[in-house]
Amino acid sequence: MDRLKDKVAIITGGSQGMGAAHAKLFIDEGAKVVITDINAEKGEKYADELGNNATFIKQDVSSETDWQRVMDETKQKLGNLDILVNNAGITFAKSIFDITVDDYVKIFRINQLGAFLGTKYAAIAMKDQQHGSIVNISSLNGIVGGAVGYTDTKFAVRGLTKAAALELAHYNIRVNSVHPGVISTPMIHQGDTGDAVEQFAKSIPLQRIAKPNEVSKMVLFLASDDSSYSTGSEFVIDGGMSAQ
């Protein structure tokens, strides 16, 4: 239970869903974790639940100023940064006929710009120490098509991962992307969606949707030294959906 012993990690969008599962597993594996989220009430409460090895910092991932502040506070409180998980993201299912420019810009700023800023500032923090792991949470819709807006940003995260991996390999900074399929998180349980999710699960080869912790185990692998020769790659966790 010490695959991340003494390592410092930042996990964005860490107060609920997959981010919360990542944070818990990282701490269980010995890491000191900074949880960031736009929702300060949830973030502070969850950090308290996780104990002394969790710190909460409020953050808008689309703000460059916020990224600079998060990095400064992390260094002051915990020292060097070893791991970044760019997990924060939003989605909505709207037709191309209905999506507005404001909708499109909002999802771009959080999903795509947020991942870029995180990768950039993590790389700055990791460069001098000559090691680090950046894990970008994309989606199955970064591999195959889905809703306009969401799919666009998740393909972009995949491309950012590959470009950054090539540039940062010289500094021993690894960058990989994770592509979850349908995961049981608050994001997919918005409104009265229970029946629809249950029906959709029947179309998945493994006949079920995933638990957040199943994704967390992949993220842990990429964050740890177990994946020391993996960079610039995408890791799909979709129950076999993309194999159909």
TrEMBL record:
GO MF annotations, alphabetized: oxidoreductase activity
InterPro entries, A to Z: NAD(P)-bd_dom_sf (IPR036291), SDR_fam (IPR002347)
Keyword entries, A-Z: Oxidoreductase
Keyword Metal-binding: no
GO biological process, one term: bile acid metabolic process
One Pfam family recorded for the sequence: adh_short_C2
Family recorded in the similarity comment: Belongs to the short-chain dehydrogenases/reductases (SDR) family.
Protein name: Short chain dehydrogenase
Originating organism: Paucilactobacillus hokkaidonensis JCM 18461
